[in-house]
Amino acid sequence: MTGAEANTDRDLAGGLERLWTPHRMTYIAGEDRPEGGYDKPAGCPFCLAPSRPPQESLVVARGEHVFAVLNLYPYNAGHLLVCPYRHVADYTDLDGPETAELASFTQTAMRVIRKVSNAHGFNLGMNQGGVAGAGIAAHLHQHVVPRWGGDANFMAVIGRTKVLPQLLGDTRDLLTRAWPS
Description:
Number of strands: 7
CATH topology: HIT family, subunit A
Shape: globular
Largest sheet: 5 strands, antiparallel
Structural class: alpha+beta
Strand order of the largest sheet: 3-4-5-7-6
Distance between the termini: 54 Å
């Protein structure tokens, strides 16, 4: 069996290809979760990030109600999360100013990433609840994932390895410098 065969199969009913990525289970299973989990602010990395030193927190920009931080487990280089400072789980729990600033930060993140890395497109989204795929469901966060033609290449599909061309700290510095004051 080849590497490709080991990682894909065909859904007999619908003819869909499925790609299995078991290496993500370490993250999904939360093997590096803090004691007590993410549900309380004391263990929530999004609540802790703004108070940590910049190089450790990976915070790129700060607003009045939200901040942008690099994803510690990025799908692509420049994968940002826009988070409210307030520990809130659901989009419907945001107030008006938080909602407006979250939208504005998402737009700014897209502009900054385009400027520094010429992204061809973006995936934007929120996973609301654990059943919807949220790894940290207790604290709302909007994903801003830059995409380029060919970024899902053989390394990830066959080699089960994601190639990121930049260290997180270097990406943070680049995006922070380009973020408008």
